[in-house]
Amino acid sequence: MDDAGKVKTVEELAALIGGRVSGDAQIGIECVASIGSASVGAVAFVEDRKALESAQDCAASALIVPDGAGEHARGIAHKVPAIIEASKPRLAFVLIGRILHPQKRREPLIHPTAFIAPGANIALTAYLGPHVSIGEHSTIGTGTRIEAGVVVGDDVTIGIDCVLHPNVTLYDGVTLGDNVVLHAGVCIGADGFGYVRDDVGYHKFPQIGTVVIEDGVELGAYSCVDRAALGQTRIGRGTKIDNLVHVGHNCDIGERVVIAAQTGISGSVTIEDDAVIGGQVGFGDHVRVQSGAVIGSKAGVLPGKVVRPGVWWGIPIQPLDEYKRLNAHMGRLPQMREEIKELRRKVQELEEKVHDQG
Amino acid sequence: MDDAGKVKTVEELAALIGGRVSGDAQIGIECVASIGSASVGAVAFVEDRKALESAQDCAASALIVPDGAGEHARGIAHKVPAIIEASKPRLAFVLIGRILHPQKRREPLIHPTAFIAPGANIALTAYLGPHVSIGEHSTIGTGTRIEAGVVVGDDVTIGIDCVLHPNVTLYDGVTLGDNVVLHAGVCIGADGFGYVRDDVGYHKFPQIGTVVIEDGVELGAYSCVDRAALGQTRIGRGTKIDNLVHVGHNCDIGERVVIAAQTGISGSVTIEDDAVIGGQVGFGDHVRVQSGAVIGSKAGVLPGKVVRPGVWWGIPIQPLDEYKRLNAHMGRLPQMREEIKELRRKVQELEEKVHDQG
Amino acid sequence: MDDAGKVKTVEELAALIGGRVSGDAQIGIECVASIGSASVGAVAFVEDRKALESAQDCAASALIVPDGAGEHARGIAHKVPAIIEASKPRLAFVLIGRILHPQKRREPLIHPTAFIAPGANIALTAYLGPHVSIGEHSTIGTGTRIEAGVVVGDDVTIGIDCVLHPNVTLYDGVTLGDNVVLHAGVCIGADGFGYVRDDVGYHKFPQIGTVVIEDGVELGAYSCVDRAALGQTRIGRGTKIDNLVHVGHNCDIGERVVIAAQTGISGSVTIEDDAVIGGQVGFGDHVRVQSGAVIGSKAGVLPGKVVRPGVWWGIPIQPLDEYKRLNAHMGRLPQMREEIKELRRKVQELEEKVHDQG
Q1: pLDDT by residue (tens digit) across A22-47?
Q2: What pairs with residue C310 in β-bridges?
Q3: Can you give the residue ranges of every domain in chain A?
Q4: Does B113 touch chain C (CB under 8 A)?
């Protein structure tokens, strides 16, 4: 990953993120790094004043710190020649990282080993790598990069500036917006899991809907989004999904949703904008997660449940506070049993005494 | 997905499923659709009389309803020109869907970019897509469709009318029956996870068995079925498995079993015919699930357990009724603690009184 | 999988593992098999004296038994002409299996459909199968076998005698040691899942680190190891990982660690040497698992937790003993409720009596 961009001065970088420099503003920066590993030419960051303590031996050429912490930082990180104050140091670090380490670019190319079916429409500035296969009447937008071994079905639409990493599979008829990133092996549009049983066995319910992935979505390696039975499965704009996640048929995932690795979402689940879902969560079908809900890792959500805003936890899910309270109660079970035993002893004593006195 | 079949009349469709038509039997139908999205030319269905209420504004050209509900349906779904009564409306919808939306067909082809090793035996009517690779002495049956990027090892046998979606991997020596559907990236025959440890580290136990996938099995995207250490791993006829499922070495999965997404099955597990397994379930090794058992999502089954017919839930699994009862008890823990506190107060009072009276 | 090696005599095999033969030492052995399925020409094993009972009808040509159990074995397994005593029968079986069933070998080859970018450095004895793609400046070591459809990015280093099964993806810049085995579809080096949110949405944290997979590691089908944000993600020497496992960015997995299928490991988790992790376990970020810890399947480990040596279980994890004790307590909840009810009745009686006596 050494596609590093060109060297920038601290001054240039600070200007780009609206930061204030103290120290040597003309020093050259060529990469981002962590506090612990940074050396000459690198910029690092500390999130808050407390974290500044860890920067004592920092060997970076520049350090991004919170607004107002510049002087304090110069005192602690005395080896660092330039300090940049920023209102949101982590975000500033991200933006500077994007400049110093620009995304890999490929020159426009249709690799000679790629196969393009009749009627496909490939933008002149697209990149199709080795052994890529594009189906009939599919469209690839400008600047889109399709890496080796990707298989695109028929009648697929892919927007501009997308990146499809190796061995992705897009089934027939699915649609990707712009700036979509699909990591290795993502699978969009496989049949939903729906069958009707009769005496002989299972018959597949029609799986003739489609999938729409909106602008700016990123999906992790081997995550799967099934096509709708009828209608469409949707992943909303700006949503980020980790590796090995399963999204069932007819799900409607909103915008800016975050879903961590290995979570599984049954059919017809709705997740509204800005929800945050942990890893290895399981959703029964027809769940609705409302905007503002946060669901902890490994939670289980029963079919049909409406998950309101707030933090949820456990199997089945409950508000985090209740979950904690119940867990605390459970931890006291041995003590409760002791107390009951003690009470029984005392009550028996009392009964005997009262009987004697009676 | 617009490989729609030819238009059929309501009369033709009703005849195929043994249904009874009222209204305009000659109207043309070209697709299936849901109640809510159906428009002219579509057939929809309602499962039961209660669901008929949702058909008030249905704009379909035909509606499948339960036997005997025809007249009632004509009253409610007054915009729908044809009603088909069927004994099992959902099944009728599935069968009609299969006729109106036939599975994608490919003309027989060996794509020029496909690689076929010496001694492989490819049926004349098979389809091998771009960048497919077939190993030595492997056999591909008539009508089988192998999509782009699939890798078939040596000595593999694939039956007739199978569909292997893109990027599937079959290791050496595995066997698929007829009408098997493998979604993108399914992996059959990787080594089982078995090692023997000595002072130096782990040595792989021999993984020299094989895998047999019987007729009519369907496996979801990226599901994995490991080869047996010795002997064979089997998936029985008509079994349906969802995405990202792991089936370990030497498992024996029966016929018409259903397994939802992300379930993991350790080595040497037996699941008998007609069992139903939810998503994200985990099985320890040497479990036996008996025919008639239903295991809820996210359940955990301890090694060696025999799971009898009935509905099971939880970690570790217990009968659903017991699970619910225990959950109810747990919900009353705070109240129990209060009651114990109250009892202790009362007992102390009593002790004091009895002492005073003594 | 019939790449069987050459036939060996019992005497030769026993010599290789330091075993002692009784019976016909010249009999020929060509394969390993289980007790139940072994026939002429096969060697089977029993782990301990108790298991010998299962060998009564064993039809193998040779049987490996524990040291000192030879005579006893000849009495029970009377059909088996040769008995080999070994101090560790299972390990002896593994070592003999490796000789009789050697790993598949490929003649050195660069398949004509493989694509090799400029500046890549492929050892003369390497095998590159059909439709393989190797990026710029990548290095493939001697004897390494890369099966069909594998995609290797730019600046990747692969050591000697590795096996990459079909459709593996290695992103740019990752490093594999020697004797690494990656099963179908393993993905090394995809971006870690880290974002910073502002008013507009999520911005990706720089994912510019790398991944190092050390010697002798084996990863199961579709397991994913993400690249570090900054720095490196490491899988230590001799570690074995099952199918569909997720290893997040910046994890440091030690040597000889075992991780079963579908486990998910968040970012910046450290797992020390020789730990054993079950299937479907979930780790929050910044967990440290100490050497000697064993974590049961389906367990959940909260972020930042230090897991000490011992056996752990449950969500969140607790020592197995405590987990069992708590489970036993929970099972007694109905009885506890009954006891509380009974106590309340008795206390009320007492109160009445004491009141009457007062």
Answers
A1: 999 999 999 999 998 999 999 999 99
A2: C293
A3: 8-100, 109-318, 319-358
A4: yes
